[in-house]
Design goal:
The protein has 2 helices and no strands. It is mostly helical. The model has no long low-confidence stretch (mean pLDDT 89).
């Protein structure tokens, strides 16, 4: 729990910071996708990414709701 004297920034934890290594890794993955000419591979990748995005979106929504519940109890 934060001391009463410290300011509380409720959404600071939601700011995404990317390290240089993470940025380069993402860029490498993007370039692999852009260079791929196999439509079947790209189709399967899109399907997998759509499923993963849905799952992560749902999980993130649940996590934010849980954090909100916990913050309402603490503050």
């Amino acid at each position: 729990m934060l001391p009463k004297s410290e300011p509380y920034e409720s959404f600071d934890w939601m700011v995404v910071e990317q390290s240089l290594e993470e940025e380069l890794s993402l860029e490498r993955s993007i370039r692999e996708i852009e260079d791929c000419e196999n439509i079947d591979v790209l189709s399967r990748l899109c399907v997998a990414m759509a499923r993963q995005q849905w799952h992560q979106g749902k999980l993130l929504k649940q996590a934010v709701m849980r954090v909100t519940e916990l913050e309402s109890v603490i503050f």
